[in-house]
Known about the structure:
Number of helices: 12
Shape: globular
Distance between the termini: 42 Å
Order of helices and strands: EEEHEHEHEHEHEHEHEHEHEHHEH
Number of strands: 13
Largest sheet: 9 strands, mixed
Radius of gyration: 20 Å
Strand content: 15-25%
Strand order of the largest sheet: 3-2-1-4-5-13-10-11-12
Amino acid sequence: MMAAFKHSIVRTTLGLRHVARLSTTTGACTSRSLSTSSTAHAAETTGSEWKDYVRHGIVDTVGKTPLIRLNRLSEETGCEILGKAEFLNPGGSVKDRPAEMLIRDAEERGLLKEGGTVVEGTAGNTGIGLAHICNARGYKCVIYMPNTQSQEKIDTLKMLGADVRPVPAVPFSDPDNYNHQAKRCADELDNAIWTNQFDNVANRRAHYESTGPEIWAQTNGTLNAFTCATGTGGTLAGTARFLKEQDPSVQVVLADPPGSVLYRFFEHGTLEREGDGSITEGIGQGRITDNLAGTPLDYAIHIPDVDSMQMTFRLLHEEGILVGASSGLNVCAAVEVARRLGPGHTVATILCDSGSRYAAKIFNKQWLQDKGFLDVIPSEYHNALF
């Protein structure tokens, strides 16, 4: 089980702004402000204010990630735009949280025994998280994934010892969809589970028990809105449920890429795709997953790929944060939510994973040109492409 979250900080480029403490016994949040002076920074680095503990293996490092103030965007909107730095998880993405919970849940229910096999269909990040946890717990790991995903993800999975099986990308309705192939594989093996991240609600439980409480504590209960895109639905659904329980007025907004049905479903009640496919990976959906079903949403936003790409490069060159395009999409949504709310509000989102996983795609000049995105990236950033 993940250790209780104790102390966290809203980070800025200048130093500490705020420390929030979440009681391990009552769940109550207490806090006090800290200056952004060198004194505050010294307090953090010397340990007189900042406290941590020895983690019990790699599994205990999942979660408890910083919440980063995006300074330039906060100044532009007059709101606090905050990004949860999920790329700092041990497996490098937000998917480490459900990976840990999916395996823990199977262990708790007696479905997975010593030396067993974990099988999943994934766009990559959940598989990477599962592979880390499997290595730490002594399980074998088999990953089915669409062959459209980045080579960096495939290579990482192989380095982690996973049995990686790329398959053609076909709709969920096709029996050869990567998820269905993963289930059939698990059914044919002894002492094996299909973690079923899309419809196993242990996924959203991970975020209800960790992501939501962390954000609430880190903002000292002053959060006005939370937004992110969804693939499985777990991050949005679990975080939303927790936040709405703390304060029903917190707005929860679904951000959706091109090619997904979710924007039209939640705004117009029809399961129809908005636009063509997206260059983002692991987000967008063609159905309502069990994780997403019943999630308390206020509204949905459609974010074009051009906006996501431009924001991804802004985050790198203005904030110094290297993330993938799904994070760019999330931050676009956070800015739009902030503008709708008006100045003086606090909006949080998810920085899903590192941009290093997409080096051969979104940070490659030829790929950008082939996809028609090179001209929308400011020319002063082109020297950072390869």
